[in-house]
Design a protein that fits this description.
about 500 residues, alpha+beta, Glutamine Phosphoribosylpyrophosphate, subunit 1, domain 1, Rossmann fold, 7-stranded antiparallel β-sheet, 6-stranded antiparallel β-sheet, 19 helices, elongated
């Protein structure tokens, strides 16, 4: 997966990628600072959360200007562009599409003029599940929605359609009607806003600068721009920041359900969520993986870079030496040059290559974060055997992914997920490993140091905390992953049963 931290292990073929990150959002209110550049570097720190498009909106108090385009942050912005974005207030977004296609029109921040003559710009991390209802509300107001298919644009239109209310008051009316996972960062000419859904599925944190405030998807982005971490934006909270300081309001009662997959893969290892550092959590996952699935082997190696912390933990717990068996090409990312068939057949060798001297004659434990379709692991096992490995034992630092995400992560469809159709032994044979072990859901949950009741674990157990209305077009999934279990209302889960009614 191309991104700021170079996590590429899943993307053998750019047309058939692995789990794609939710988007990244950033906002800053800081008179006297170069807020466009602060936002640029904040987005750069969040590049791993979205690589399709990037955008920045800025205001000097008199008007909002937005610059956005398709591509990586460093491709979209240059020095002259950033120099033209002057002001004391800015928001930014790096996008991977979950609802709406990958087009310029759907890039963010979205922007909408209000009847009062002000302008609202908004950036969104997450995915909404009542987009159809929001679209009907917008249509009833007579607003033209042609040119966009994104849930974010609909929310922006609704916020701007309250001529008798301030933006803050409009948000307190609109946000309770928005269902799904959202971390919003938005602005008008003078004020920065941040809001998080009642479940807090996607992360959002607040930071302090010497002359202002910052909000971002991850603590790593705050630290990149020199901001101190203050706290997380609470589930169901709306924050407003202007010349009068910071104000906090509640638009919904909090029912925390933070995304468990953030701990496995999505967040940067130097990020902290709910008081837990991601690197420490992933090392602990590796320790628990070694306890649950020991192996008689000579060396533990990671699939770089996403498997590294768990591999370190596995080695520490098992006593098997940690080593490097695969070398990653750090500069392989998105490319518009299509490989020839002969190059395509090389597959993963474009991105990973074995250290033959290290792996020859050894029994290896290979640690990775997830198995999606199995293509990556199959190629890695074959490559290591060709390099002389005697045995290859695959260990995965997440349980089998068997359900799609409707809250901001784009997994493969349920039909494509290898764990949907095969049991553990079937997957082991499919990828050609000598043994295969996944960390248990209980083990993964324990490593987060969060109670299961405060986590969304739907991609692993199918229990969706936010109801999924039938017929609601939420991204390209269109509820395609909700299979017979949901249609039959089995498992006794009210959210799943409600999704068919």
């Amino acid at each position: 997966m191309p991104g700021g931290d170079g996590r590429l292990s899943h993307e053998l073929d750019p047309h058939r990628p692995g789990p794609q990150d939710a988007c990244g959002v950033f906002g800053v209110w800081s008179p006297g600072e170069d807020v466009a550049k602060l936002t640029y570097f904040g987005l750069y720190a969040l590049q791993h959360r979205g690589q399709e498009a990037a955008g920045i909106a800025v205001s000097d108090g008199s008007g909002v200007v937005v610059y956005k385009d398709l591509g990586l942050v460093a491709q979209v912005f240059d020095e002259p562009t950033l120099a033209s974005l002057r002001g004391y207030l800015a928001i930014g977004h790096t996008r991977y599409s979950t609802t709406g296609g990958s087009t310029w029109e759907n890039s963010q921040p979205t922007i909408q003029a209000t009847p009062a003559g002000t302008t609202i710009a908004l950036a969104h991390n997450g995915n909404l599940v009542n987009t159809a209802d929001l679209a009907r509300s917008v249509a009833e107001l007579g607003i033209d929605t042609r040119g966009t298919t994104s849930d974010t644009a609909l929310v922006t239109m609704l916020l701007a359609a309250k001529p008798d209310l301030s933006v803050e008051a409009a948000a307190m009316e609109v946000l309770p009607t928005v269902k799904g996972a959202f971390s919003f960062v938005f602005m008008d000419e003078t004020t920065l806003y941040a809001a998080r859904d009642a479940h807090g599925v996607r992360p959002l944190v607040l930071g302090r600068l010497s002359r202002g405030w910052v909000v971002a998807s991850e603590t790593a982005a705050l630290e990149t721009v020199g901001a101190s971490v203050v706290r997380e934006v609470e589930p169901g909270e709306l924050i407003a920041i202007d010349e009068h300081g910071l104000r906090s309001s509640r638009f919904a009662s909090p029912e925390p359900k933070g995304c468990l997959f953030e701990y496995v893969y999505l967040a940067r290892p130097d990020t902290t969520i709910s008081g837990r550092n991601m690197y420490a959590a992933r090392v602990e996952i590796g320790r628990r993986l070694a306890q649950e699935h020991p192996a008689d082997a000579d060396m533990v190696i990671p699939v770089p870079e996403s498997g590294t912390p768990a591999a370190i933990g596995y080695a520490q717990e098992s006593g098997i030496p940690y080593g490097k068996g695969l070398v990653k090409n750090a500069y392989v990312g998105r490319t518009f040059i299509q490989p020839s068939q002969s190059i395509r057949q090389l597959g993963i060798r474009l991105k990973l290559n074995p250290l033959r001297e290290n792996v020859r004659g050894k029994r290896l434990v290979v640690v990775d974060d997830t198995i999606v379709r199995g293509n990556t692991q199959r190629a890695i096992v074959r490559m290591l055997r060709e390099a002389g490995a005697l045995e290859v034992h695959v260990r995965i630092s997440a349980p089998p992914v068997t359900w799609p995400c409707f809250y901001g992560i784009d997994f493969a469809t349920r039909a494509e997920l290898i764990a949907t159709g095969l049991d553990n032994e079937g997957i082991r044979r499919s990828i050609g490993a000598d043994s295969l072990g996944y960390v248990s859901l209980a083990g993964l949950t324990a490593a987060t140091e969060q109670p299961a009741s405060r986590l969304c674990r739907a991609c692993f157990d199918g229990n969706y905390p936010i109801q999924l209305p039938a017929g609601n077009l939420i991204g390209k999934h269109v509820l395609e992953g909700v299979d017979r279990r949901v249609e039959a209302g089995e498992q006794g889960d009210p959210a799943l049963a409600a999704s068919r009614s």
